[in-house]
Amino acid sequence: MTRTHASTDHPAAALLIGGNGKTGRRVAEKLRAQGRPVRIGSRTGAPAFDWNVPGTWGPALEGVDRVYVTYHPDLGFPGAAEQVGAFSEAAVAAGAGRLVLLSGRGEEAARRAEERLKASGAEWTVVRASWFNQNFDEDFFLEPVRAGEIALPTADAVEAFIDTDDIADVVVAALTDDRHVGRTYELSGPRLISFADVAAELSKATGREIAYVPVSDAEYRAVLRANGLPQEFADLFAQILDGRNAHLVHGVEEVLGRKPKDFADYAREAAASGVWEV
User: Fold this and answer.
1) Closest CA to 101 of 48, 171, 22
2) DSSP 3-state assignment of 100?
3) What kind and span of H or E run contains 66?
4) Which is nearest to 175 in space by CA: 68, 60, 63?
5) What tens digit of pLDDT does each residue of 198-220 get?
6) Distance CA 202, CA 205 (A)
7) Considering the entire predicted model, what is its pTM?
8) CA–CA dist 237, 194 (Å, integer)
């Protein structure tokens, strides 16, 4: 028989770091639907949580027995491993013994953070995800899609985009079911598609032309500088889209017993919401 980490009669809260983000808010909704209390770990949370202010960690962890750990801006950025390691140790010391870490598929720099979390003594699960479908309607690429042009230094690289609802379902399972302790799951969508394919799917879903425009690394770095964004994003593009993720993985099926959502289905649903209307 599988047990949950806390009593179902009076379950302790789950702390969701980045609980207002693309995956975090979906995890929150799904846990609440199960009747489980959640605490949102963010600068606007009550109590507030800030990765850069360790003094906020203790109050956020009070009364918590499990944590969904996401790191902003990216787990592969300098200093992330050290902060994740220190937080993980603080969490275990505070009684939050189960940690589920969102990591990046193919991100070698993120492995240091994974190892630091594992070394904390927690019951751990690592969830390595491919690029999110929702990057196109909730984040980086929303305005480019609305403008009808996605300009990136990705050439013909392919990615198995994953839906954040699928990620959230896996995370909820890892937070609540002991069978996932000590496991690392790699998640992808059901097929490999290029950014030109993405543009074609978005064009079909929206009924207007959305073009993919390949640009050089230097051109993309100039855009990042102009918008005040970290140059490390260009480094991640170069690393992740070099072919290392050009194959499917099956973590969604392994954990949930079903296929992940296809990008075309995501695009139709997002278009129907009106998010890309101009």
Assistant:
1) 171
2) strand
3) strand 64-69
4) 68
5) 999 999 999 999 999 988 888 88
6) 5
7) 0.91
8) 13
